Amino acid sequence: MACISEHHLNEYTMLGVWKIEEDLKTLLSMVKLGPEDKKKFKQFKSNSRKLEFLSVRALLAELLGPEARIVYNKNNKPFIKDGSHFISISHSHKLTAIMLSSRERIGIDLEYMSSNIMRIARKFINRNEKVTRKRDLRKYHLYLHWCAKESLYKICDKEGINMQKNITIHPFTVEESGDITGKVHSEMINEVFDLQYTRYENYAIVWTKKEYDVKESEKAKMYRPVNGS
Q1: Burial of 205 (0-12, 13-18, 19+ CB in 10 A)
Q2: How far apart are CA 191 and CA 185, in angstroms?
Q3: Burial 91-102 (b: 16+ CB within 10 A, else e)
Q4: Angle in degrees, CA 111, 97, 118, rounded to 5
Q5: 3-state SS class at 128
Q6: Both 130 and 48 in a single domain?
Q7: Are residues 218 and 200 in the same domain?
Q8: Do 79 and 58 belong together in one domain?
Q9: Deepest in the core among 30, 35, 37, 202, taking most CB within 10 A?
Q10: DSSP element (H, E) containing 197
Q11: 218, 126: one domain
Q12: Does the structure show a pLDDT above 80 at 223?
């Protein structure tokens, strides 16, 4: 099905979503894998993981062009190899999402909404967070909390952040799409972020962006990833 959504959030930042309906052969014909990508691709044993990997590269080619390459640092944080953009990646079930920015810190997460979330809610919801009691909305509300926390974890790029203890999603009324505010509070960071969310079929999608300090941005772009993935 290829790219089903491409949004330019501002002049620096874009977001794309890909729905995986192709088989391996079709997706392979849609991407131009470099040597590092080919080596990584051969290591995957499951078809689902191979499809995810290829869909990320196909979506990246759609957004930046076929020569764009993803590499990862020692903490498994992705980068665009030429340093032109920061990148955040998420995939679940049949959807893949990429967020790219030449200037802003970014984080995105999407999740296919199974019924399992309610069983683990106590592991990531804290006492300051409010989740609706309406049965028809509760699962979606919980997934939005989870995706929001994953997005904030990614944008902060800090080790030692606990999803329940160090990230708080401020109370919000759940809609099909809307805005959220979240705070990351730990020994290393104390910062508030604005997030946006939407629902696509049975998926929850949340993303966040925040402009870098100029000095911090230049420092980040100078960072060299150490291995391809």
Answers
A1: buried
A2: 7
A3: bbbbbbbbbbbe
A4: 5
A5: coil
A6: no
A7: no
A8: yes
A9: 37
A10: strand 190-200
A11: no
A12: no
In which domain, by residue range, is 219 found? 3-103+214-228
- Look at the chain and report how many structural domains it folds into: 2
Residue with tokens 């131009």: 32
Query: How far is Cα 52 from Cα 138, in angstroms, rounded to an integer?
Result: 28
Q: Are residues 98 and 130 in the same domain?
A: no
* pLDDT tens profile 7-62: 999 999 999 999 999 999 999 999 999 998 999 999 999 999 999 999 999 999 99
Question: Phi and psi dihedrals of 69, rounded to 5?
Answer: -130, 145
> Two tokens at 27?
């997706």
For 79, what's the count of Cα atoms within 13 Å in the CB-facing half-sphere? 20
The CATH number of the domain holding residue 85 is 3.90.470.20
Place of tokens 């100078």: 222
The predicted model scores a pTM of 0.90
